[in-house]
Amino acid sequence: MSDALMEVLSGIDRLEGAEVSARATSYWDASPMEAEAIYLPRSTADVSRILAACNDAGRKVVVHGGRTGCADGVASNAGDIVLSLEKMNAIEEIDPIGHVAVVEAGVILETLQDAVADAGLFLPMDLGARGSCTIGGNIATNAGGVNVIRYGMMRNLVLGLEVVLPDGRVLSSMKRMLKDNAGYDLKQLFIGSEGTLGVVTRAIVKLEPAVSQRETALAALSSYADVTALLSLAKARLGAALTSFELMWGDYYRAVCDGLGLRAPLDRAHPFYVLIETEANAQGANSEAFMALLEEAMTSSVVKDGVIAQSEQERREIWRIRDDFEPILREKPVYLFDVSMPVTDMDGYIDKVRRALTVLADDAVLHVFGHIGDGNLHLFAHPGKGAAAAPERRRAVEECVYEPLRHIEGSVSAEHGIGREKKEWLSVSRSEDEIAMMKMLKKSIDPNNILNPGVVFDL
Amino acid sequence: MSDALMEVLSGIDRLEGAEVSARATSYWDASPMEAEAIYLPRSTADVSRILAACNDAGRKVVVHGGRTGCADGVASNAGDIVLSLEKMNAIEEIDPIGHVAVVEAGVILETLQDAVADAGLFLPMDLGARGSCTIGGNIATNAGGVNVIRYGMMRNLVLGLEVVLPDGRVLSSMKRMLKDNAGYDLKQLFIGSEGTLGVVTRAIVKLEPAVSQRETALAALSSYADVTALLSLAKARLGAALTSFELMWGDYYRAVCDGLGLRAPLDRAHPFYVLIETEANAQGANSEAFMALLEEAMTSSVVKDGVIAQSEQERREIWRIRDDFEPILREKPVYLFDVSMPVTDMDGYIDKVRRALTVLADDAVLHVFGHIGDGNLHLFAHPGKGAAAAPERRRAVEECVYEPLRHIEGSVSAEHGIGREKKEWLSVSRSEDEIAMMKMLKKSIDPNNILNPGVVFDL
After folding, report:
1. Are B233 and B297 in contact (CB under 8 A)?
2. Model pTM?
3. A405 touches chain B (CB under 8 A)
4. Most buried in the list A44, A222, A404, B315, measured by CB within 10 Å?
5. Rounded to whole angstroms, what are the CA distances from B256 to A25, A53, B24, B65, B327?
6. Do residues B387 and B410 make contact, with C-beta atoms less than 8 angstroms apart?
7. d(Cα B18, Cα B61) in Å, to the nearest integer?
8. Which value does ipTM take for this structure?
9. Residue among B192, B237, B240 whose CB faces A181 most closely
10. Is B23 within 8 Å of chain A by CB?
11. Which tens digits make up the pLDDT trace of A90-109?
């Protein structure tokens, strides 16, 4: 069967044997990649041929973008066919009037960000893996990142999409318009379905005007009620200019500042720290509003102390506390979680998780920060020194983190997706009928279950 | 069968006979409504019972919101069951911290706008039918309206959704988060599918901060190239503060000003007029940027003449030219179209339509304005005095308007949807494979084809 497949797919670049195992499984897993072959299509027609052939032969296909996903979505077995979009990496067009970019799926996010910036525009999608992740992967997983409060997730940036279905048919809707109500919006099905329904090959992405000015402040607060009060105030006073509202719990702030040996910009004793940032297209457009907001928040005692970045370097120093959580990862094992919930429930939720972890082990440690304007928290849970990094211990920690989400309509994945890692927990966030509907869609569109089987759910 | 249905659905409010025909078919069609009965559920459980019973009995169900849609989606026949959401009109909650509203589908848009404003927030969805249309209808049709350039379409405002499937199952995902990647985002299937896949019963809608200041200007331009130059400049200088960029072709401007007997704020001789508006959350935040933009555009001769509204009354007078197209409707018949395309193609497209109409009749008239920041044009086509308002003549005009969209990846419906009116033209904007995929979804989710059959496409 394999020889027949090779025959049918001759002419398409292929890696085998040592070329496969020379690759790491993913950014997170350094073990050698396993696959029968990695196909490297150069065109949508190639992708179509590969999928049609695999579908006919009933062969499983694992789709690879930049392999930086955090939910174990790309692991393959020795018998699998891997389809990597890395050679479909053309930026076909950047339209400065229509404010769109036309790209192939394999373009690296940072490459596109730079090309768009060179054209005097701004691609709002940004996340830590920017140097490795691909636009196709961003679309397949509905990536989030650091600009969601202002610009939305990847779904909001996709105007046109080309997808190859499991049977090789090409569903092309390469449209450039914000408004298009001609029948069902099929692209929505594929965005965020983690490569289980089709392979994204090309896209048209919405661009934004370049940002010419940013204002950044760090504020210390004494209660969670003050945090939500500041969020409401910031939204009211800054509107669309508000681009970041990042909350750090006090122990996170202390762990990072101490661990990195930083001169903490604000006293370490506060229970909460908020990093707040605005952007404007015209120099100075929001400076006054930003200053007025901070003054108002301090006068009314919502904010206890604060500091405003006076230079790009000071801005970077503030952001480093939020970004550089390396000290928190030192005590092994540490499990990273990505949950979302109504902003009003966050404080109570974190208390619950903390208590549950303490029951698990006296010396368990939890560090938390969140894009709380988006409803998104990231948790770093260390189950205590005595704990082995065994699957059972990990599962116990997952239970502490995921179970309390059930009663507050929270999500087990805000932005990372389900992959293989969280499928056991999907039912915390989705009803039986919802999961049945997902499976029905999968079976209808991929009846032979060849595309990323076992990702999101098992059939 | 009907008696059996009545029996099963006893206890749910129902209109019959004269109570049915006392209603108009729709806002656009005053003829008496036809239906076997209109059911008026008061709860999601009622909707579930109605659909399950109709599905078991193989009865067609036509779903009614405010019946203001522009694509003939609500017409029913004497044997149909109509399901009207009008009694499910509770605003369950407005959360001033989470910035969401929890509503039943039958809430009138304007009622919700007002309640949200009373809570000190802003619901960005707005359109002409605000006093009659419902949130459920806005969601089912993915409504657009006047704030899309800044806030997106209805799809972008829906965080949580509850839908009843044709077999009566309730698919409830009443989430409040901007970020939720727990499996397929099923709500996207139902938003914009025009009631053919499920009945929207409740929703959680994203709210925005109140707007405290608007700046409005009218500019005259001498070429379409200048129009796109001004659009690029306005986006670059104003960013998210830009909320409207409405283009009127010269003959539209003249027809409205002359027909209404208005003192035209700018000379009537220009080929293009742009209404440009910004908003800010803080008093004065964007005034300077707005003035600087207009000065720059006039200095560089992109704008030939301009006027800035100095009061709310002057603002209304400018908007009236854009909004009050009643004079254009005087020469009967006039057909209204709602198309979208890349902004760079609009000028050439309008030339093509104009030429095609002239071939149809020497005295055919075309008036055009558009939300061009959204890629959306509205066309008013009068096929000439000699023309009867016959279906054939209408079809000929449709051909003039829709056929040129084929080659520019345009859409036959930007915001109004397909309904029954445009299904013949769906193939201009969607490929055979796309339409096949839509039908496959419909057959999978509504195997008995009971929900709004004949809307979007025929099976």
Report:
1. yes
2. 0.96
3. no
4. A404
5. 65, 60, 30, 32, 6
6. no
7. 19
8. 0.95
9. B192
10. no
11. 999 999 989 999 999 999 99
